[in-house]
Amino acid sequence: MTETPGEGRGRSDRVYAPDFLTELFRNPLDPGYADAAARRRERPERGWRRWSGRPLSLVVLVVLGFLFAVAYRQTMADEPGRSQVRSGLVAQIKQRETETDRLSERAERLRAEVARQRAAALGGSEAARLRTLEAGTGLGRVRGDGVVVRLADAPQGQDVVQGGDVGPSRVLYSDLQVVANDLWSAGAEAIAINGQRLTAMSTIRSAGQAILVDYRPVTGPYEVSAIGPEEMRERYDGSRSALTMRKVAEETGLSFGVRDAEDLALPAAPEPRLRYAEPSVSPSPSPSGGGRSVSPGPSRSGTSPSPSGGG
Transmembrane region positions (predicted)? Predict the structure, then answer.
């Protein structure tokens, strides 16, 4: 099939070979598009069409450049203020940490002095019994053999295979909770986390990325030291937390290890602030006459106890 020149200007002949598909892929452009392009080259567009869009584009570029310049200047102007505020906060944190450490040392000295005065006033047998009770409740220093469980976050940038059910590659507050609970179950008599002694009233919580033990922050690596019988190590190695943490360490790169330790020295926990509930006595007589009415205070669960409870 042959197409000869016709009325269109500059139309070239196009011969289709017997293999139509091969020819179509070889010359995909229709002659009509080539003719239109040739006519545009011979008859250029008017000047206003060519240049009408350029001023608008130039204005947009100028406005964008001005906005970027203003934003950059504002950012650079605010940077000294932000740096100063950040430096001030860091200085305050360091100052408060220094004051906290100083007050903790003073409290330790005062506690030791109170213990000496109390032992002198009680006598030998009563003082020994008191020391035994303090060691059991966490309010006294203890020494002995035991184990140390060490946990640490995975190194930054380490290429590890993340498991879908093992969590992040950093130590969580719940990890310390289960480790401490399983150590208690294994027979531990005293436990401390990074020097913070645990008692029956201790809490292990999180505040953002920080871990708090009795409302005091602890940082990694975390060492859970426990004093107990010789078989405590073997019991803990078979516990659920030990098996779980070893699996987490293999899949995330988190560091987990258990070792025996001799002559561990665990500090005393701060003395708790005990609160006692007392009934408020009203001076007005009860409706039944005779006695005074007792207004029950709120209980721990938030509900009021029955005033007819036993005394």
Answer: 51-72
Q: Is the CB of residue 1 less than 8 Å from the CB of residue 16?
A: yes
Q: Kindly give the interhelix angle for 53-122 and 124-137, rounded to the nearest 10 degrees.
A: 160
Q: Rounded to whole angstroms, how far apart are CA atoms 293 and 268?
A: 44
Pick the closest to residue 182 from 129, 145, 235 (CA basis): 235
Please name the residue that has the structure tokens 């922050």.
Answer: 217
Q: Tell me the C-alpha distance between 261 and 283, whole Å.
A: 62
CA angle 263, 265, 270 (to 5 degrees): 165
Distance CA 192, CA 213 (A): 10
**CATH says 143-266 is which class?**
alpha beta
Could you tell me the mean pLDDT of each successive run of 10 residues in the chain, 311 residues long?
44 55 67 75 58 72 85 78 81 87 85 80 76 78 91 73 61 91 92 90 86 87 92 92 90 90 86 79 54 34 37 31
User: To which H or E segment does residue 190 belong?
Assistant: strand 190-193
Q: Residue written as tokens 């504002």?
A: 74
CA neighbours closer than 13 Å in the CB half-sphere of residue 53: 3
As a whole number of Å, the CA-based R_g of the chain is 40
User: Domain segments of the chain: what residues?
Assistant: 2-43, 76-122, 143-266
Give the Cα separation of 251 and 82 in Å (integer): 40
Residue 30 one-letter amino acid: D
Residue 52: φ, ψ to 5°: -65, -35
User: Dihedral of the CA atoms 66, 70, 75, 76 (nearest 10)?
Assistant: 90
* CA distance linking residue 189 with residue 132, whole number of Å: 12
Helix, strand, coil percentages (3-state) for the chain, rounded to 5, are 45, 20, 35
